[in-house]
Amino acid sequence: MTNFILSEDDNVISLLETDPCSVRGPHVVDSNYHVLLFNTSYDCYKKLSIKNKEKLLALYNEVFFLKSTNSLKNIVQLIDDIEKIPVASGTTLFVLSNSSLLSTDNNKQLSTALSRLKIWQLKSSITVYFCIYGVHQNKSLVSTLSSHCNQIDSVSLVSASDETNYQYTLLFAHTKQGILTNADYYFDANQKTYTPVDEKAYFSNLSITDTINDKRDILSQPSLLRDNEIPPAQFRFFDSPEEILEAALTNRKATIIFPCIAYEEIERISRHAYQLRASCGLELKIIVRELIQCISYFDERLLLDSGVNLIVHAELSFSHFISQTIAIQNQVYVGQLPKKYEDLLNLRPRYNFSGQSDITLFTQHVKSLISQLMSLRIDFALIRLDMLPSQDITECASLCKLRRDGDLLTTGGGVIYVFLSAIRANDVDNVLNGIFHLKVNELFSSYCVFINPVDIIEELTNATATHLNKNVKTKPTRWHTSKPLPSHKTTTRVYAKRVPLERKSQRVLP
After folding, report:
1. Sign of the C-alpha dihedral, residues 246, 247, 248, 251?
2. Is residue 35 classed as helix, strand or coil in its secondary structure?
3. What pLDDT score was predicted for residue 491?
4. CB–CB of 211/234 below 8 Å?
5. Which CATH superfamily is domain 2-197 in?
């Protein structure tokens, strides 16, 4: 069995000082022989912030140190040493190391190392616990280990409430009854007992406006609230994101909520979220509440990759927003942060066109955007809004408030065209209702959605041709003759009515 026990600082070392069985977690049968392996030399061990160094060594039957002063940075090299240790069958081996042991970005190498360790364990009947401290220096470690859950028996997080009490969280564990996930326990170091946290009983006593608890404050800014919205008692408001960051450093289990009221704020919010996640760790909850519809699904990916746990959209009511805030408590962020925030910005597309223009310029901009969006594999849509007979097209167009970069609008031929970048076809209705502040079904006679590039170009080509034909002025023909003008008999011609072909990819019904 291969297990990982993680702590942001040295809490896992403190657990090792109490009792070898304690660090293994609840519902684990103890073994008779315990071996402790340090991924460092004895000289470096004496420099660690451990209160009872000699007591720790005395708790284990055998203790091994590295000869070199530098700790190994490669788990494959450490497994080479583990296989050389003469241990008896049924032994429990504890490996104490900092997070630099698993800092490699090569998942294939880690997978090979875990497979090799599994084979060695089956032959020798040895259980291995990797006790990793300093996880705050390797933010992607949890997500990396979770991706290898088929090769790992359990992954746990340890944090200290005080000197004698710890919170022990099983992120996942393979048991005889099945897979156990996100199970929280309180550990009393004096009694050496684990007590499960009864979350159901805990949350059943909460109402929407109740305080979660003193250690789970909700930090935000005053602009988070709309008119007539009353926040719960645990909300604390700060004037700037910098003050929120300072408060979060002393409460790393708090919930941070950023209000988003404009498209231009998305990048700033993602940068603050990245700084908070990098500074405060994985247990901090970060929420973005959209107050005005301005976040596209591609912007959602930017925010989530920046360390955000949850995005609440503008159409959600305040009571549902509070319910979702309560629902994500005790969650741990499992995403992988890049080393630099600028790496995220390089993945965000930049558009050179937005706003309202005439039909000819609109068509040119749409063609350029389609080419750019297709290369990035981003969805888009063109919407044709048909006017009612008594409507003024200029007044209707003035109701449209485009807030995102890459969204375009034009009028012509009694219709309004809206091009939306980075949008899924299923979200078109909600977005249209948001930018017009009215239901489009009530405002227009009908509307048609085009999501296929060929259909979009064909529709705009026809619209541009119609617009140009209306601008052509014909001059009357003058007859230079004294004879009377020829008379023509009026004949009735039957024209075949042109019925456009409607493809499934061309029209998305409202």
Report:
1. positive
2. strand
3. 35
4. yes
5. P-loop containing nucleotide triphosphate hydrolases (3.40.50.300)
For the chain, domain boundaries: 2-197, 218-345, 355-469
- The residue type of 130 is F
Distances in Å between the Cα of 26 and the Cα atoms of 1, 82, 135, 145, 366 are: 16, 26, 22, 21, 60
* Burial class of residue 371 (count of CB atoms within 10 Å of its CB; 0-12, 13-18, 19+): exposed
The position carrying tokens 């076809």 is 425
Residue whose tokens read 């209306």: 470
Asked: is 218-345 a CATH 1.10.630.10 domain? The reply is no
446-450: strand order across its sheet: 355-356, 408-412, 415-421, 380-386, 446-450
Q: Where do we find the tokens 């069985």? A: 21
In the Cβ-directed half-sphere of 101, how many Cα atoms lie within 13 Å?
25
Query: Shortest CA distance to 508 belongs to which of 431, 435, 443, 436?
Result: 431
Q: State the maximum Cα–Cα separation within the chain, in Å, rounded to a whole number.
A: 128
Over residues 143-199, the pLDDT tens digits come to: 778 778 888 888 888 887 677 778 888 888 887 767 777 788 888 877 778 888 764
- What is the rounded distance in angstroms from the CA atom of residue 119 to the CA atom of residue 111? 13
Residue 404: strand, helix, or coil: coil
The amino acid sitting at 127 is T
Q: How many residues does the structure list for the chain?
A: 510
**372-385 residue pLDDT tens:** 888 878 889 999 99
CATH classification code of 355-469: 3.30.70.270
Tell me if residue 264 falls in helix, strand or coil. Answer: helix
The structure's pTM equals: 0.49
